[in-house]
Amino acid sequence: MEKAKTKSAAVFAGIGHYFGDFGRAVKDGDLFVKLSLLWMGAGYFRRKQYIKSILITIFEVLIIIYSVVFGLQYVPKFGTLGTVKREAVFNPMTMKNEFNQYDNSFMILLFSVITFVIWAAFLAIYISNVKRAYELQKMAENGEHINTFLEDVNTYRNENFHKTLLALPVAGVVLFTVVPLLILVLVAFTNYDQQHMPPGELFTWTGLTNFINLFGGGGLTITFGYAFVRVLLWTLVWAVFATFTTYIGGILLSLLINHKRVKGKKMWRTLFMVTIAVPQFVSLLLVRNFFANGGIVNTICANIGLTEFLRNAGIISTSYIPFLSSPGWAHVMIILINIWVGVPYQMLIATGALMNLPTDQIESARIDGANPTQIFRHITMPYLLFITGPALVTDFVKNINNFNVIYLLTQDVYTTTNQALANSQAKEVDLLVTWLFRLTQEYYNYKMAAVIGIMVFIVCAGFTLVAFTRMTKGNREEEYN
Amino acid sequence: MKLKVSDILRYALLAFLALIWLVPIVWLLATSFSKYTGMNTTTFFPTEWGIENYKNLLFGADSVAQFPHWFWNTMVIAVFTCVISTAFVLMVAYATSCMRFKGRKALMNISVVINLFPGVLAMIAVYFILKSFDLTNSYVGLILVYSASSGLGYLIAKGFLDTVPVSLREAAYLDGASEAMVFFKVVMPMSKPIIVYTVISSFLVPWMDFVYAKMILNSGVSSQWTVAIGLYNMLEKSLINTYFTQFCAGGVLVSIPISILFIIMQKFYVEGVTGGAVKG
Description:
With 481 residues, chain A is mainly alpha-helical.
């Protein structure tokens, strides 16, 4: 706690400094520093950095042009997300139906968010620009050397090289991850669904309505809360099982293969790796047909009399074993198939860890008279857990978002018979992410999909926070360093 | 070394497990060499063997199966994705591992938080963004989707770069090398394993992904698809009885190059992952 407090204090102090420096620059700066509040190139111009001055001025002008010509078409409508619905009007001049000047709610949302991001970036550059102008003024007063343009460019290969390196990747992440996420987070607070699809219709802000509906607000979505709880529970059960079965299985398998009396380690390892080298959409689609209602496994089971046995025992009521098409069976099968997919990965990682065992510790333990079991229990196992433990947390989060396995195994095959779930377009085997995906792709229910997405984030973030605070508490790094 | 009972048990267990792991793969191979077109549900091994499926797939393209086209499309997308992603990942890894600057920690924390959002969520909006810029049904759009955010996956590479001794870089600085020179001439030549790993893993993305591809290349013209959506489409309810064995043949054909790359890559994967974990 103490540590967390000082950390957040440091963050606020940092923010305070950031704006404090800016205020000081404005207050104590000379005419040109103050002028650069309006004309960004002023400070550089005064210090004879003409090229820099011109470049930053061009940048400023471009931003202004963008804002006026493009941004301001959308941003003022951000509050309402548009008011003019599309209507076809008959134009007697061209003898055709023409659309009026209508608002497209989604475009307003999208371009407003993009404009906000651009403005935020601009603001950051603007503030640092004023600070820089003030710095230059001080440097000039102290008679220090002021960089020429070439020298400035050179810093981007030296102390500012990180800016050169990070510019494009960060821009990519902002455009293709941050902006999309922002938009969908905002959609959670609107009524964007099949009845409100742009361009034909408008959608608008509805505050927390969707969140209230999710938790059983009644009305149309009476089953939605139920479906959410069901799907959430299965998601968690799945994530726990998928993570631990593959983790433990992987460690056991690697111990088995790497046992000192086993020959042909490489061959065994390769045999297991073949399954992960085949792309998942091939292997999982194949397995899905392998276990289909009329598939090969069912034929074999019928031939050996297993199907009949199960039917007589009252376990199944169909003429086949519904491996992937009825609730309980499908859940178990999915976890089993995931073991098949996931264990080889974990085996690889555990093998890597086993190869780096602290040999000196083992040696000294042996000299002290420890037997192999003791060595395994007190050195090998703790070491393995220490190395691979942190990965468990990320694996858990990955499994909560494990779209591929569930989608490939159940899409188009599994149909739910539970009316309450079907009303909310969910299935018993859905994870939150596959449900979210179906809601958008087949039912255009973007608002609820966005709410579910936020819920997934909350679950993952909560879990990660708890796991990592627990993990750093013991400070286990000491033990092996 | 004398064989003990425990050894025999151990080998028996391994053999049994290996058998389970390989059954579906063997079935894939066997089915791909059968003479049927649909799914054979009566026997595990086909009763009639043949290579018609491969012949049809490679030379007899029809409106559904355009395997040579798909292979080429995926290859082009993969090459561009690979170049951009590798560059991005290495750049971010170097900046966060070897350089110290204001906001470095903050940037890394933000990337952790972003990774906690479900990727599917971003994907849905990415589709709309590409559509409003008219980039759907274009390879440029797909390449951007695969590679633009790749910087977020820098952690393994950073873990590796953390192991490059600081003294080497310091020696270079003393010799008057610029940061950029250190990056290209000192650190990169020492990072061959992680470069190979990044190159292969980003090259594989377009071969493995079907969700993004299905979303973005949605025009329904099969010759424009990638291998993943093409093969996925063969298992549509109306097509599966005619194309199942061709699907298997296609699966074998893509799996061969991928397996080879994968086996090369796994060595570096283990090094990167465990190496990164030790340093925390």
